[in-house]
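Bit of a strange request maybe. I'm writing a small parser for structure token strings and I need a real example to test against, not something I typed by hand. Could someone generate the tokens for this chain?
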Amino acid sequence: MKISAKGRYALSMLLDLAEHRNEGFIALKDISERRQISKKYLEQIIPVLNKANILRTTRGSHGGYMLAKRPENCTAGEILRLTENTLFNRINSIAEGDEHIDMRYVPLCDRLDRVISECLDKIILQDILDWNIDAFDYVI
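Reply from user aminoacidic:
Good idea to test on real output. This should exercise your parser:
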């Protein structure tokens, strides 16, 4: 599974809004600067999140964005399903288009897709905010 830039940036934007939720509406410029993400790229993600009622927006001199949901009520799975065309189903389309792959592989991909979706649906924005990144041990 590979999460696209759109999915990563949507998560990053929503995490920023969650971190600053007590500050009211946040200008897109501020999110862009803090997260070092192009403002134009964030502008492309906003309609998707707005339509799904994850964001609240207001215009004007004090306009900006805020989470429409509490960080405890917004899952990584929900966000990634909105911003990614698929989560893991790409393997299914590859397997189905390749005559050299045993078709029994397709149910394996379906099961893997369900497991990944279930896992992401258990991770809420608040969990991600609470993670201690220093505690992770990365080995390559």
